[in-house]
């Protein structure tokens, strides 16, 4: 019985086609900016989002951390949702790398409104409070269950940032999921955000790599910050080749992951042991069992069937669909869910 690993969309292995692209990549020393494949990937993404520049990073956390550093000075404050990845899952890097604090907003499934941002801005002349300098949004939201922002809300937040001279960064680890689910144009995101980070190693299925995208004025320091964080890499074109391949071959197919996620959500909602399934918008399903005490038994029954999902604590269970989750696995998983008795 093959393992079905639905803990995250980061568990994928490169496909045959991707491995071929990696093997055939032309490479050079990227610290000298002489890796043609990295340059190709960066130009491709900058163009796609209508921005001047893009820079390849080893991880999404490093791309976000670099962006925060570019937008802020020590002792300043950024505004983000209480569930934001930059606050919860980057090891406290906001304070370590940038000396910045986070004003946490009580958003809806990881998304915050323009009104909430406005209430969170400290008055710049009130020198007792940290100076607010940046707003970080996440799309799709991770802890919020793959929820997608309403573009109109983002436009309002952009206007507010302009009014108060704040930077606007998008943690777009799963931005391609949102683009596909809502049929949006990357250039619209390029227009609204000063910087955008995108993960290639989640739904797009590469072994590693993220990209930070922005205009020259901000990005001219990005390569220095990346070096400081230890992220200057040499013949990394092999991994950039995987990224180029993923952008050409793995974007449209995200809709398959979304369809399967929505079917899992519907199946879960039918089960007597399930209390609630959060709305499924992309490839993440978050749900709660009727009795929190059933969690261990539920996970055990999945384990017996060689199926793995994530327990996020506070009764929150998470399933993520991805490139390595086949139709055959999908049918077997739905069947297992139908037959669990707690
Ligand atoms: C995965 C993820 C990141 C980046 O994580 P790395 O593991 O450092 O690549 C950033 N933001 C969100 C919302 C994520 O889901």
Automatic annotation (TrEMBL):
Pfam families: Beta_elim_lyase. CDD domains: TA_like. PANTHER family: L-THREONINE ALDOLASE, L-THREONINE ALDOLASE-RELATED. Keywords: Pyridoxal phosphate. Residues 5-291 form the Aromatic amino acid beta-eliminating lyase/threonine aldolase domain. This is Threonine aldolase family protein. Its cofactor is pyridoxal 5'-phosphate. Belongs to the threonine aldolase family. It comes from the Bacteria.
């Amino acid at each position: 019985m093959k393992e079905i690993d639905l803990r995250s969309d980061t568990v994928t292995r490169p496909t045959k086609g991707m491995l071929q692209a990696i093997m055939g990549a032309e490479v050079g020393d990227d610290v000298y900016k002489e890796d043609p494949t990295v340059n190709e990937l960066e130009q491709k993404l900058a163009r796609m989002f209508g921005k001047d520049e893009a820079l390849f990073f080893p991880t999404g956390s490093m791309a976000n951390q670099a962006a925060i550093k570019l937008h802020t000075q020590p002792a300043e404050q950024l505004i983000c949702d209480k569930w934001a990845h930059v606050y919860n899952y980057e090891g406290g890097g906001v304070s370590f790398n940038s000396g910045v604090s986070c004003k946490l907003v009580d958003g809806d499934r990881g998304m915050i409104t323009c009104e909430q941002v406005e209430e969170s801005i400290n008055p710049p002349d009130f020198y007792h409070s940290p100076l607010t300098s940046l707003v970080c949004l996440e799309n799709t939201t991770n802890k919020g269950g793959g929820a997608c922002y309403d573009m109109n809300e983002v436009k309002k937040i952009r206007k507010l940032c302009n009014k108060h001279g704040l930077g606007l960064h998008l943690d777009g680890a799963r931005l391609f999921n949102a683009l596909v689910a809502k049929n949006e144009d990357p250039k619209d995101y390029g227009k609204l955000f000063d910087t955008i980070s995108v993960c290639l190693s989640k739904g797009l299925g590469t072994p590693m790599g993220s990209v930070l995208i922005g205009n020259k004025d901000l990005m001219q320091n990005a390569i220095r910050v990346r070096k400081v964080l230890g992220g200057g890499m040499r013949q990394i074109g092999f991994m950039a080749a995987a990224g180029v391949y993923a952008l050409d071959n793995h974007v449209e197919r995200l809709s398959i992951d979304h369809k399967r996620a929505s079917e899992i959500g519907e199946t879960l909602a039918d089960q007597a042991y399930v209390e609630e399934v959060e709305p499924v918008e992309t490839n993440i399903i978050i749900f709660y069992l009727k009795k929190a005490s059933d969690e261990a038994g539920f996970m055990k029954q999945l384990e017996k069937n060689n199926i793995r999902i994530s327990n996020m604590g506070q009764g929150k269970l998470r399933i993520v669909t991805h490139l390595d989750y086949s139709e055959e696995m999908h049918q077997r998983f739905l069947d297992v869910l139908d037959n669990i008795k707690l």
